[in-house]
């Protein structure tokens, strides 16, 4: 091109022709410059698009294992999709048997607590465990019509949420059970999207840390850290492929400090799903504006009546007042027991179990109340013909600000309240427990 331009300049041609030739060369040069600019533009867009979050595909080995396991289990229609089983298999690093156990326990949990037949609104506003839990948190609803690269978005804001105070109103087990329900909402929406698109879907959670008290999380033995650790354990054990990314915005301190705190509550594999942003504007690097609330610079407005204000896409919460605090005896009065049974103290060594057995010849309400000095796996079983049948799902809990309590309707039979110390340390767990069956008559 340069040589051609030189020949044009040296050629003895009239000035008008020279100007025409120069104009042609300018157009040619402009064409190549514009081409390079467009190529650079699309390259940048492609690089930016690589940051956009999407649910990863499944390899053929995982899908083959999923097909094998799918033939052996029954998946409810509202959760069933081409990738439901594959999510659990990848979450268990290809271990089919462990994936089976996770699926079966999750499906049993939703059945025993009755949320398998409830809508999202009913989980928020009606369920006896979900309602008193969700009303204390600022969260959005799942909008199945909104996706970003086939991914759905949920928003939670921590401003005004005092975990220490909340734990004086509801027991930790309520939060654990409600987190299963929360993930169940994800699963239903994911299944619809996967069945509609034929591609994997997942959920991204935008967690707004504005207003959070960092001091609550600097002590690994604090109630907020213990709560977060057990909730994150459910995410890691059951739903690592349902919630593919946790984006944390408005961090109240140095990101390095936030990473240090994360080590208290999760393993390295789960921590890799975290993403700390310095600015809410950076959300657009990972998600399309249609799934980002207007409050955070996006286009999403929830005008359904759920959100307050609509631009936040999150519902308001009920702050804890001193009049809301529960006492240790309240579970008994709630169930009409005027004289609570005495608490009995036991010690449970590492990987040992403690069974508390109760029998009834009449229908009634099985009521329990306990505190523990450390983590315990707790469940309630019914014994029939030598077989143990779950009547209350197993979860891992520990005592925080309030004792663990609950009740369940039972028919005549023999029941076991089972406590297991899951720890591998030499520290024993001290348990204080009272349980009784109140007859209807």
UniProtKB/TrEMBL annotation:
Coiled coil: none annotated. GO terms for cellular component: cytoplasm. InterPro entries: CRAL-TRIO_dom (IPR001251), CRAL-TRIO_dom_sf (IPR036865), GOLD_dom_sf (IPR036598), SEC14/CRAL-TRIO_domain (IPR051064). Residues 175-304 form the CRAL-TRIO domain. Gene3D superfamilies: CRAL-TRIO lipid binding domain, GOLD domain. Pfam families: CRAL_TRIO (PF00650). This is CRAL-TRIO domain-containing protein. It comes from Diploscapter pachys.
């Amino acid at each position: 091109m340069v040589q051609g331009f030189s020949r044009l300049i040296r050629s003895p041609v009239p000035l008008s022709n020279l100007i025409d030739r120069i104009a042609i060369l300018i157009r040619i040069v402009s064409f190549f410059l514009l081409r390079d600019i467009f190529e650079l533009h699309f390259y940048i867009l492609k690089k930016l698009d690589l940051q956009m979050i999407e649910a990863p595909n499944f390899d053929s080995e995982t899908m083959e294992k999923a097909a094998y396991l799918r033939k052996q289990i029954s998946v409810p229609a509202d959760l069933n999709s081409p990738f439901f089983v594959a999510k659990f298999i990848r979450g268990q690093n290809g271990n089919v048997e462990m994936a089976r156990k996770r699926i079966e326990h999750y499906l049993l949990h939703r059945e025993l607590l009755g949320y398998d037949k409830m809508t999202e609104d009913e989980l928020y506003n009606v369920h006896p465990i979900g309602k008193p839990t969700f009303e204390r948190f600022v969260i959005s609803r799942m909008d199945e019509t909104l996706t970003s690269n086939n991914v759905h978005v949920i928003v939670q804001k921590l401003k005004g949420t005092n975990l220490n105070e909340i734990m004086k109103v509801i027991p930790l087990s309520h939060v654990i059970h409600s987190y299963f329900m929360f993930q169940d909402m994800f699963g239903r929406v994911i299944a619809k999207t996967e069945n509609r698109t034929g591609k994997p879907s997942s959920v991204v959670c935008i967690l707004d840390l504005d207003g959070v008290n960092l001091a609550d999380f600097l002590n690994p033995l604090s109630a907020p850290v213990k709560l977060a650790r057990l909730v994150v354990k459910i995410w890691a054990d059951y739903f690592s492929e349902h919630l593919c990314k946790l984006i944390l915005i408005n961090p109240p301190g140095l990101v390095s400090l936030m990473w240090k705190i994360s080590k208290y509550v999760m393993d390295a594999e789960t921590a890799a799903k975290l993403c700390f942003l310095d600015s809410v504007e950076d959300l657009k690097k990972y998600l399309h504006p249609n799934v980002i609330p207007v409050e955070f610079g996006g286009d999403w407005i929830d005008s359904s009546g759920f959100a307050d204000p609509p631009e936040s896409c999150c519902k308001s919460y009920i702050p804890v007042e001193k009049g809301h605090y529960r006492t240790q005896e309240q579970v008994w009065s709630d169930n009409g027991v005027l004289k609570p049974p005495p608490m009995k103290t036991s010690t449970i060594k590492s990987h040992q179990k403690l069974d508390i057995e109760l029998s009834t010849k009449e229908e009634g309400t099985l009521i329990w109340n306990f505190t523990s000095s450390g983590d315990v796996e707790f469940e309630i079983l019914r014994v029939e013909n030598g077989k143990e049948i779950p009547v209350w799902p197993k979860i891992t809990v520990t005592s925080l600000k309030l004792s663990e309590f609950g009740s369940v309707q039972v028919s005549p039979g023999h029941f076991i309240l089972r406590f297991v110390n899951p720890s591998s340390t030499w520290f024993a767990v001290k348990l204080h427990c009272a349980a009784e069956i109140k007859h209807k008559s």
